[in-house]
Fold these 3 entries.
Entry 1:
Amino acid sequence: MTPTRPLALRPDAAGIDQAASLLASGALVAFPTETVYGLGADARNGEAVAAIYAAKGRPSFNPLIVHLPSTDAARDLVHWSDTADRLAQAFWPGPLTLVLPLRADHGLSGLVTAGLPTVALRVPAQPSAQTLLRAFGGPVAAPSANPSGRISATTAAHVVAGLGDKLVAVLDDGPCTVGLESTIIGLDGAPTLLRAGGLPLEAIEAALGGPLDQSTTPVAITAPGQLASHYAPRAPLRMNVTTAEPGELLLGFGQIQADLNLSERGDLHEAAANLFEMLHRLDAMGQAIAVAPIPDHGLGRAINDRLARAAAPRD
C-alpha cells in the first residue's frame, strides 16, 4: 500500500488559511520558519500535541517550543520579566527561544512542557510563519519536522521524506534561511544558555551586558535540543577531520578538498544555512561522514553543538 503524502500548500492566502483551519481541527501541519521546518499542532489540544510525539517518535520527557505571533501573546502565557523584555525587544521576531515560568491559567497542554513548570516560547520572523500564526490565532507547538534524533528539516522535501505519512499538510515556502534551530535561553533564574542556535551567544550577551550561565547538556532535560545524541544521520559521523578515511565522505569548510563544502569562503552564516541540507545529501549516499573543523565562535558554536550531538554514541 502506497504511503499517504501530505497536502502541499502554497504560502499564499488560500494555503495559509487552509493550514490554519487544519491546525484548528487538531491536525498536524508542517510549516517553515527561518530556522527549520516545524511540525505544528494546536498547543492547547492534548490529542494534537500527543500526535506530534507519536509522529516523531519523540521521548515524552523532551518539551516542545510554542510558537506565537507576538510578544504580547507570549506575555499571556508566562510570568514575564525585565530580562525577557530586553531580549524580546532586541531579537523577536527571530531565532531566539525564551524559557519562562508558566502562569497558572496558561491553557497549554501539559504534554507541551513535559510536566515542567516552565515553557519555551518563540516568535518566528519568517513571513509565512507569522501570517499562519496570526491566522490561526493561538499558540502552536512545533518541534523540528523530522523523526526524533535525526537530521532536522530545512526544506519541505526533507519533511516529506522523514514524516510524509504522519502529517496532513506541509506549507512549502522554500529553504529555511538560518538553517539551525533557535538559540534557547532559560529565564527561570539567572539567564542561562540551554541550547546554542541560530542567534549567536555573543549577540545575546551584548544585549544583556554580561555573560550567560550555560547548561546545554544537563542531567535532566529542561529544554528542547539537549539530548546527548540528536540531529544524527543514519551513518556514523566524525568531527574535526581534514582527510577522510577510505569509505568516508568529507564535509568541508573553507579551503579544503571535500565531497561537499559548507562554505568554501569560510562564512559561518552560509555554513549554518547549508548544514542540515548537506547532511541529508551525504546521509543519502549511505557512507560514514567526516566533517572538517569549524571555528567555535558565533554561529560556529551552534554548528559544532549539532555536529557533536550527531556524532555522539546512540542508544
Entry 2:
Amino acid sequence: MADAKVIPFDDDRSRARRRPPARGGGEAAVRALPAQQPPAGAPETQVAPETAPEPVPAAGQGGWERRLAGGLAFLRRRVTGDYEVDEFGYDEELTDQVLMSLLRPVYEKYFRVEVKGVENIPKDGGALVVANHSGTLPLDGLMMQVAVHDHHPAGRHLRLLAADLVFMLPVVNELARKAGHTLACAEDAERLLRAGEIVGVMPEGFKGIGKPFAERYKLQRFGRGGFVSTALRAGVPIVPCSIVGAEEIYPMLGNAKTLARVLGLPYFPLTPTFPWLGPLGALPLPTKWTIQFGEPIPTDSYPQEAAEDPMLMFNLTDQVREQIQHTLYKLLVQRRSVFF
C-alpha cells in the first residue's frame, strides 16, 4: 500500500477527481452539481429544481405493506440503475435510507451523542464546518455527519473532506464516495461550497486523530490556513465545531512506528485492548459524546484578493482554532464523566 498522506489542503497541486463511471446497465446516472455561485455583485442565475427520489415510507406511515413496497422499489432502482449520483459519486438516496440507518444506532444508543448549536449551520447556501479530530479511527466525522443530517432544521447534508488513505482502501473507498465524501483538496472543497453544500473538514488530519492519549483535547497545528483560503474564495461562513467524547474511544498509549511504515499507515495504534484482544480490541469504548457547533465566522465581507493575504489567513485560522479549543475546555468542565 502506498504511504498515506495527511490532508493536503495546503498543497497547491491539482488532484484528479475520481469520478463515477459512465452510465451503463444497472449504473446510476451522473447528476452535475448546480452552477457555481457568481462573485459578489454579479447577477444570479436560476437553477432548475431537481426531482427527488421516491422515498421509502417511514414506520407508522401506512403499515408494513407500504414499507415493504417502498423497500422493493428501492431495490428495483438499485438493480436497474434508476437513481442518480452527483459528479463526486454522492448517492443521496442510499445515504439517507441505508447508510444513515446503519450509523444511527451507533450515534443514538452507543455513543448517545448530544448535539448543540446545529442551528448555527445556515439553512441554505454553502458553509465550511471546521472540527477537531481525534479517536484513532475517524468515527468523529461520521457522527458529525449524522448530527447534521438528523438534527438540522432544514435537513441539510454534510459533505466530508477525507485524506487520501480513505480512497486507497477497497470497499471503504466506494462507501465514502456514496456517502458524499471527497478528497481533502482545495479544488473539490471550493467546488462543493460554491454549489451551496455544507462541507466538513478536520484540519489536524492524522496529527489529531493519531495523537497520544496523554495529549487528548489539545488541538494540533491547523496547517497554513488552507481551509480559510478556500472559505474566502467561496465567500461562505466558517462554522467551528467541537467534539468531546471521541478521544476516549480508543485510548492510544503507544505507536508502533516501524510496523506503521511497513503497512504504509500514518501510525499503528497500541491501546489497552488492541492488538492484544484481536478483533475484539477494535470495539470502541462506549463513551458519551457532545458535538457543539459554534457561532459562524462570516467571510463574504472580504474582497476576493483576501484569500491571498497570509496575515489574514493566519488570524482567521487562529480565531477558529481558539474558538474550538475554548469550547472543548468548556464542554469538558461541564460533562459528568467519560461514559455518562
Entry 3:
Amino acid sequence: MSSSDIFIGETIGTAVLILLGAGVVAAVILKRSKALNAGWLAITFGWGFAVLTGAYISAPLSGAHLNPAVTVGIAITSGEWGDVPVYFAGQMLGAMIGATLAWLAYYGQFHAHLTDPEIVAKEDEEGLVDKSVSPTAGPVLGVFSTGPEIRNVAQNLATEIIGTAVLVLAILTLGLTKGLGVSGTGVLIVALVVVGIGLSLGGPTGYAINPARDLGPRIVHALLPLPNKGGSDWSYAWIPVAGPLIGGALAGGLYELAFA
C-alpha cells in the first residue's frame, strides 16, 4: 500500500465511521429527531454498523485501521512504523470531516435543541447541563465525544485501556484463523466486537476506544458555531486519547507474548 492510498483510505473510512457513529448519537439525544430516546442499544449497534461500513469502504486502500490504537497494536506486532504517521493523519482528518458531516445532517435538530427556550430549560431542570464542565454547557458534546458518568481519573483511564485492549487483541488474533480476512468476515466480527464492548464496557465512559474518534470530533465541537453549546471538556480529553493508545500497545505486547 502506498502512503497516498493509506491516507485516502483512512480519511474516507474514518469519516464514514464518525458520520454514522455521531449520527446515531445525535438521532437518539437531540430533540425533534424521529429516533429520540431510542436508547443505549441503538447507540451501540449504530456504532458497530458504523465500524462495519467504514472498514469495508477503506479496507482495499489502507487495511481499515480507522483507529490510532489499532495502528499502534499492529505496528508493535509487525515492527513496521514507517506509515504510522500517515495512518494517524488520515484518521484525525477523517474524524473531523465525519463530525462536521454529522452536524450538517442534523443542523436543524442541533439548532432546535440548543436554542428552544423550553428545551434548554428542561435540560437544565433534569440535570443534563453539566455545570462542572461549563456554566452554560449543553448536552450535545456527547454527540461528538465521550465523557464519564463518574469522574475518576484512574477508573476512567483503566476503562478505556481495558476496552481498547479487548478490541485490538480481537483484531490481531483474527489473522490466526485461515481465510477469515480474505473472506471479509473479519470486518463483520470486528464490528460485533465493538458492539459487545459498548454493551459490556461502555457504561462508565462511553467507550471511546479510539483516540481519533474522540479528539477529532471534540475539536470540531469547539470550532462549530453551535449556540449555547457549552465547553468541550478539555480537562477530560486526554483520557480517551491516552487510554486507547496504552490499551492498543498492551494488546500488541500481549499478542507477541501469547500468540507470536
